[in-house]
Amino acid sequence: MIDFVVTLVATFLWLVSTSAWAKALTDIKIATGHNIIQELDACKQPEVTCYFDSVTSMGSLNVSVIFGFLNMILWGGNAWFVYKETSLHSPSNTSAAHGQGGIPPPAGM
After folding, report:
1. pTM recorded for the entire structure
2. CA-to-CA dists, residue 43 to 34, 35, 46, 68, angstroms
3. Between 20 and 30 A from 76 (CA), which of 6, 24, 56, 70?
4. Rounded to whole angstroms, how far apart are CA atoms 28 and 75?
């Protein structure tokens, strides 16, 4: 039962941490976008001209968010198998019949 609770906690923590990282990544993309030129005090002076060239590729950061959510799904799937090993999961009727000798012994012995 403790394994099941730990697995659920780990799944929840992966969900929360990956969501927080995805939100932070969105904020980073907004903060480093082309609108940053308008907010810099040095670029507001009349004798200074500022140009926005490009933003560094953030593809690997996007992949890290995707892998975070995939890891959360993996932990969630693992929780199902851990749940099946707990006392909360009731055995099916077919396995109970086999455990009680539901198959008759062979005749003629």
Report:
1. 0.64
2. 13, 12, 8, 38
3. 24
4. 28
Q: How many CB atoms lie within 10 A of CB 65?
A: 17
**Two structure tokens written together for 53:** 């060239």
The token pair at 17 is 């941490």
- Span 56-74, average pLDDT: 91
Tell me the per-residue pLDDT of 67-80, one tens digit each, with 9 for 90 and over. 999 999 999 999 88
| Under 8 Å between Cβ of 4 and 82 | yes
Residues 41, 81: Cα–Cα separation, whole Å: 57
Question: CA separation (Å) from 88 to 53, 69, 82, 85?
Answer: 59, 27, 11, 8
HEC string of 35-89 equals CHHHHCCHHHCCCCCCCCCCCCCCHHHHHHHHHHHHHHHHHHHHHHHHHHCCCCC
